[in-house]
Known about the structure:
The chain is mainly alpha-helical. The chain has helices spanning 45-55, 61-78, 82-93, 99-112, 118-125, 134-149; strands spanning 2-3, 6-7, 22-26, 38-42. The strands form two sheets. It has a two-stranded antiparallel sheet. A two-stranded antiparallel sheet has the order 3-4. The model has no long low-confidence stretch (mean pLDDT 92).
Amino acid sequence: MSKAGITVQKVRHLELLLVSPWSVRVGPEREIPIAGDVELFVPNPTSFIVQKLLIHSDRPPHKKAQDILYIHDTLELFGGSLGELRRLWVEEVRPRMAAKTARRAETIAQELFAEVTDTIREAARIPQDRRLAPENVQRACEYGLGEILGTA
């Protein structure tokens, strides 16, 4: 949708990104070129991943691969905290969702990463600064999501 030269995109399941956000302080002391410190709220990794799963089928093909890479990279970045991400799912995110929507997210996670697909292959080719094997992307996502969502 465009208005006054600005293009916006409707984002489904946006409310998930507002569940238990994490606070991050940025500013000059942290080498961020702004006048003063600012506290930002960012989606927690579990909410971010679940929202990406739920919007997957509505995304254009090139965005689907990008979202798979985002899921992979989020799991890789926070992989040492899978227990905390699981806790967020069980105690914070899932209870704020309709049961049917939560089950759909779990099903999508299982189906999306059950095997290496062309979309996963495309996701593995996106990074220019590293080499990813599609099989590793698939396995990492299957394992990480199984641990977080309890679908393993």
